[in-house]
Amino acid sequence: MFLQIANKTFSSRLFMGTGKFSSARVMEEAIVASGTGLVTVALKRVDAGDDEDDLLAHLRREDLTLMPNTSGARTAKEAILAARLAREALHTGWVKLEIHPDPRYLLPDPVETLEATRVLAKEGFVVLPYVQADPVLCKRLEEVGAATVMPLGAPIGSNRGLRTRDMLEIIIEQSGVPVIVDAGIGAPSHAAAALEMGADAVLVNTAIAVAGNPAEMARAFKLAVEAGRLAFENGLGTRQRHAEASSPLTGFLG
Amino acid sequence: MSAFYDVLQKYSWEEVRQRVADQSRGDAVAALEREHRTVDDFIALVSPAAAPLLEEMARQARRLTLERFGRTIQLYIPLYLSNHCTNFCVYCGFNHDNKFQRKMLTLEEVEAECAVVAGWGFRHILLVSGEAPAMTNAAYYERVIRLVRERFAQVSIEVQPLEREEYERLVAAGLDCVCVYQETYNERRYPLYHPRGRKANFQYRLATTDRAGQAGVHKMGIGALLGLEEWRVDSVFTALHLKYLEKTYWRGRYSISLPRLRPHAGAFSPNDPISDRELVQLICAYRLLDQEVEISVSTRESREFRDHVMLLGATSMSAGSSTEPGGYVSPRAGLEQFAIADDRSPREMVEAIRARGYEAVWKDWDRWMANS
Question: DSSP letter at A99?
Answer without folding.
Answer: B
